[in-house]
Amino acid sequence: MSHDHLPDFDQIRAAAARIAPHATVTPVLRSAALDALAGAELHFKCENFQRGGAFKFRGACNAVWSLVGDEARAGVVTHSSGNHGTALALAAATRGIPAHVVVPEGAVQAKLALIERAGAVLHRCAPNQSAREASAAEVQQATGAQLVHPYADDRVMAGQGTIALELLAQVPALDALITPVGGGGLASGVAIAAHGLRPGLPLFGAEPAGADDAARSLAVGERVQSVVPDTLCDGLRALIGQPNLAALREHAIDVITVSDEETIAAMRLLWRELRIVVEVSSATVLAAVLKSGERFAGRHVGLVLTGGNVDLDALPW
Fold first, then answer.
1. 286, 279 in Cβ contact below 8 A?
2. pLDDT in tens, 193-214
3. What pLDDT digit, counting tens, does each position of 103-143 carry?
4. Whether 247 contacts 192, CB under 8 Å
5. CA nearest neighbour of 7 among 176, 291, 244, 292
6. Which residues have a Cβ under 8 Å from the Cβ of 309 and sit 6 or more positions away?
7. Alpha helix locations (H) across the chain?
8. For residue 2, pLDDT beyond 80
């Protein structure tokens, strides 16, 4: 069965029920100092406290527990250099099935160690998208495992969308919501869930200037695949998926690009004011709000901090 299409609101509600026994309801943190800097009321949804240290557990868990009967026995396979691989391995463990993760050469060592510790079988490949997809297909062929794509999978997007259900229950007064944008699984799921509850809610995305394919794609009206990512935000280097781009367009997501310098400054601010270490990719949302102050002035803004799997021996400063 193909899963490369968008989920609907009912699928996201079903995902919330499915992952409830396994996922963490993450806290929302506030900082008066950051509110003052932004000229807005900021509500940080801390997915760095999720199982596996990132929001990805939600989508992976929903995909694993969506498998019926015999589908699950041979396990699951994906390609990932980081949080999705860890999340899928952890989710597979909750069901007692194998997880295979194709990882590109040169991936962040700390993230590979996490994937392995979570119990996955690692398969190495060349560091490009086509090699990742080809290797995943080979593993799938050899093992019979079910493919769980990192972002262009309706089960994964539905799981990520549960963040919006949770956040809008925690902070009903929100009148803007921003997530980082990489492959677009999070942005898509959150958009569908948020607009299922609050149809007119303004939605934003934060994207590194060095991997701005989503912003460019929205500008020209078709998927731009020529961007060669050059950013420290290793979690946001993936090109936007086809169904994900459709969701960004359909839900009128305003994508704001930020430089790595702006993002690193935001990462330091989050440490200073909230006392949390988040991945560079996560800090893009605060960087975007601070950079585009006029778009957020006086608003109650929800910012999704996507993960906290930071290599402390390789901090960007």
1. no
2. 999 999 999 999 999 999 999 9
3. 999 887 878 888 999 999 999 999 888 899 999 999 999 99
4. yes
5. 244
6. 52, 53, 54, 82, 83, 86, 110, 111, 114, 279
7. 9-19, 32-38, 56-66, 83-95, 109-117, 129-143, 154-170, 185-197, 213-220, 242-250, 260-274, 280-291, 293-296
8. no
- For 37-87, what is each residue's pLDDT tens digit? 999 999 999 999 999 999 999 999 999 999 998 899 999 999 997 889 999
Asked whether 192 and 9 are in contact (CB, 8 A), the reply is: yes
The proportion of the chain whose per-residue pLDDT surpasses 90, expressed as a percent, equals 86
Structure tokens at 194: 């948020």
User: DSSP class of residue 49?
Assistant: G
Say whether 270 sits in a helix, a strand or coil.
helix
Q: Would you say 174 and 201 are in contact if contact means Cβ atoms under 8 Å apart? A: yes
Which amino acid appears at position 27 of this protein? P
Mean of the per-residue pLDDT values of the chain: 95
Q: How far is CA 54 from the centre of its chain?
A: 8
Going by C-alpha positions, the residue among 181, 145, 168, 157 that lies closest to residue 58 is: 157
**Domains of the chain, first to last:** 9-54+153-314 (3.40.50.1100), 57-147 (3.40.50.1100)
